[in-house]
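This entry is listed as follows:

___
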Amino acid sequence: MISLKGIGKICGVSESTVSKALKRNPGIKKETIARVMEVARKYGYQPNAMVECIQTGRSRSIGIAFNKFQCEYAGAVMEGIHQVLHEYEYDAYLISWDRLVKDKVDLLSRFSRRRVDGLLLFPMALPPTSEQIKDLNRFHNPVVLIDSDWPGNNFDHVGADNRSVFPEIIKYLINQGCKKIGTISYTLATTGEERRSAFFDAMAEFNMPVNARHCLDLSDCWNEAYEAVKKLLSNKRNRPDALICFNDYVANDVLDAALDLGIRVPEDLALIGFGNLPLTRRTRPELATVDQFPCEIGRRAATLLLDRITGKETGKRRDIAIPTRFIARKSIQINNTTTEETI
């Protein structure tokens, strides 16, 4: 691979001039910059990242704490992140937070050794301990939380607007004739707390009664939903006629439980998920859901982090909520046509 000295020899300029030209220094003639860039491209020049880190104090890399590798939602958020990193010519180092916590590994040392310029943190299986939060506060570079927030922290946060869509959902279900509306929550996540609270507020807004037996709170949203909902729906005398689920995966488990019990969706049970994942179009009936625009969440989170790193964004903590959109599909269309409606 060619060096700065080698480029300078071909172009007839000094090594320092080549360095400045590659950075498009305004003190270098445009013709010189163009010639240097042409030679650098021709010979595949790659800057030394370690040297650049020493010179600028930046590694042009960020750390990402990620967990649910099999989750379509998290994957879409990651897609948005990497779109922005590609635009800014930044790299990323990825760790599995939950796995390292389980193995009692010093989490931030992994990122510190890489001299990352900032951190993006996806939701963890368990809320971080006070000691872990202290460690994050001692990390001197910017930190942005994605999706799940923690009370009382000073980190930037980017996620979906989990509340404003619920009055639209409840109104739609009422118009479909639903009278016993319940929810399947996961309040171990702050997003689950927000959605459960928004559900109760919307029910109160429309003077709808809430049956506590129709409101389940899962302790494991990946493995518990099917059995919990099957038990709920087995009670023919006291079962809901509509369920709003924490996410699309839970809604899919509810759909399976209803099918196994011979309960028709939507005729006997209207069903709504959250996320608008690709799986919602593959179920039968197609699942009504809420689009959270995860790719946009990823883009905004990465942009905010890089703006903090470069000093473009300064000041107090920011909490960015991406607007959501209710999508009515066949799993709730009892009285209407079967075409998709975007509310």
The CA atoms of residues 89 and 110 lie 22 Å apart. The mean pLDDT is 89. Residues 72-88 form the longest helix (17 residues).
